[in-house]
Amino acid sequence: MAEYNPILSAPRGANKKPKRVGRGSSSGLGTTAGKGNKGQQSRTGSSVPYVGFEGGQMPLYRRIARRGFSNYPFKKEYVCVNVSQLETKFNDGDTVDRASLAAKGFISKKADVLVKILGDGEITKKLTVDVNKVSESAKAKIEKAGGTVKTSEKAE
What we know:
Layout: H1 60-63, E1 78-82, H2 83-89, E2 95-96, H3 98-103, E3 114-118, E4 128-131, E5 133-134, H4 136-144, E6 148-151
Parallel strand pairs: 1-3, 2-4, 3-5, 4-6
């Protein structure tokens, strides 16, 4: 059995003293402090002026032409909620709208998001749904359970 030693110490060679640069020629890293003579890498500050810098050559992102149109800034993103989630969180006869979904934690109370109901799962409760979009299968399942579906065109 190993003997218990309460004093912890690092093994030999684990703790090396850092090299002190620029402390005279006898230290081995005096004068230029290991940075060589002149040039961009020997100067203080950032070693490269900016991300994408190619040493003065025209950078790739400026050589390539920008063409076309992107619809990305204008796209609409919907928060999707399945009917199975409505089944678990809502009671019979409740109204499902932005305010009730925010209260139940489906969407953020502050964010102005669009809501779409999807038809994954089953629903047995009679709900009144008033959101931005409802899929065909979700609409069929909600109406089959005795509920009503209304899509608001305001935020679309």
